[in-house]
TrEMBL record:
It comes from the Bacteria. Coiled coil: none annotated. Keywords: Signal. Residues 100-194 form the M23ase beta-sheet core domain. It comes from Phenylobacterium ferrooxidans. Pfam families: Peptidase_M23 (PF01551). This is M23 family metallopeptidase. InterPro entries: Cell_wall_metabolism_enzyme, Dup_hybrid_motif, M23ase_b-sheet_dom.
Length: 240
């Protein structure tokens, strides 16, 4: 029988945002999925966390939301390869590759809530990706949070993600607290770095990986298995 737990998070200056978690008491135990080390010759270190209770960062009803795109240790590929860490950029194979994809893009729907995987401090919020003019030219943003053991970048969120919740750079956030809204890209771009980083770092083709960079794949795979997933219910957001 399923058990339902409602998590009410009080937001500064706004009505409470109610999220519902549904878990099966008889759900089978899922085995840990191992990510492959990439690139093979000089693998980027995996982001590591000593926090035992994490939240999946996207609050959505989409069934494939927790399938993190990844190259796995067993040689298989999970999810869309071009959304995985170390995939080529630009993604278009007809164009010359200039850099590597330093994050993992998670399935989401436009308007889905983004929550902090762990407690931490907001260390930056800035313009991240501008969508093509043909689809409206929306300017998306990135939220960077210093968690206990690493910095996480939650990218491609709406410009009002912080202000709509009364948040600002420097604020402390709780694990599972809403920190953003997915933009028109309909995905959450995630990156991880060593503690102290306050901006994303690009990885040009032909260059060694930046020493501060961490591969978020294993962290996401573990969170998908053992983390807490929240589902939307009666979400009231400030006007866009």
């Amino acid at each position: 029988m399923a058990r339902t737990k409602t998590l009410a998070l009080a937001l500064v200056g706004l009505s409470a945002l109610t999220l519902t978690q549904v878990a099966s008491a008889n759900a089978p135990v899922r085995e840990r999925t191992l990510a492959a080390a990439v690139p093979q010759r000089a693998p980027v270190p995996m982001a590591a966390s000593t926090v035992t209770h994490r939240y999946w960062p996207v609050v959505t009803n989409l069934s494939q939301a927790t399938v993190a795109p990844a190259h796995l240790f067993n040689g298989k590929v999970q999810g869309a390869p071009l959304r995985s860490f170390d995939s080529r950029r630009p993604a278009d194979p007809s164009k010359v590759q200039t850099r590597r994809h330093v994050g993992v893009d998670l399935t989401a729907a436009e308007g889905d809530t983004v929550v902090a995987m762990e407690s931490g401090k907001i260390v930056n919020f800035y313009p991240f990706l501008t969508r093509a003019a043909s689809v409206g030219g929306e300017k998306t943003y990135a939220v960077l949070i210093q968690h206990k053991d690493y910095v996480a970048l939650y990218g491609e969120v709406r410009a009002n993600s912080l202000t709509a919740r009364g948040l600002k750079v420097g604020d402390q956030v709780a694990a599972g607290q809403p920190i953003g809204v997915v933009s028109g890209t309909a995905q959450l771009h995630t990156e991880t770095y060593a503690s102290g980083v306050t901006r994303n770092i690009k990885w040009p083709v032909g260059s060694p990986p930046p020493k501060e960079m961490r591969n978020p794949t294993q962290l996401l795979l573990d969170t998908a298995v053992a983390g807490e997933r929240l589902y939307p219910k009666n979400i009231r957001l400030a006007a866009s």
